[in-house]
Design a protein that fits this description.
The protein has 4 helices and 15 strands. With about 250 residues, the protein is of the alpha+beta class. It has one domain: Creatine Amidinohydrolase (Alpha-Beta Complex). The chain is globular, with a radius of gyration of 17 Å.
Amino acid sequence: MIVLKTSKELALMKEACRISAKALRLAGEAVEPGVTTGELDKLVRKVIAKEGATPVFLGYNGFPAAACISINNEVIHGIPSTRRVIRQGDLVKIDLGARLNGFVGDNAATFAAGDISPEAKRLSETTRDALYMGIRAAVAGGRIGDIGAAVQKYCEERGYSVVRQYTGHGVGAQLHEDPSVPNFGTPGRGTRLLPGMTLAIEPMVNLGKEAVSVQPDKWTVVTRDGKLSAHFEHTVAITANGPVILTKED
């Protein structure tokens, strides 16, 4: 069931999204060679707590951290550890969320640890731009397929693959709500986009093939061919005046 939010609920949700955006920005600024993913997770917890919110991911289906931190060929759901040291040239993906006033903010981004390879830089930039292509297509009266088609076309035209096994999703009082928001699709197909819908749009894009698998820890998703992956995400509200990005600090 898709839950449409009122203007009052969107205002409450925007505050949770602001905190999520702040935590993501500060965690990203802390990414550098020598830092552990466990230290980044500790920072995320501190920022969210200081804002009076709670980390959504912590304990979610048993997940042991406040942020998913995935490196290089890890696509999503990497578990932070004080033993996992970020190295020069790593592509670091941080995904996190905050809950406040009964609503959730969810966002993710890919960060460079020092100087990264040209192919890593291009992949990251393409994935970031694909996110905004998807957001641009999230127009009231349109369809879910419009979003996925925009992301897919942009990435595949540049020689990349979009992950199909995992998708974006509705978000609101719960971290995962209806509908699913794939990063592939056909324009004009799928669920109708209505004002009051709030979606987590999140391209996951691979340098190589789209196939992924889950590691023995039952969380970390990696590319099967071992090639790089990038990930960006915003929580977006569908409005009569166009899509509004909620996961911003302003």
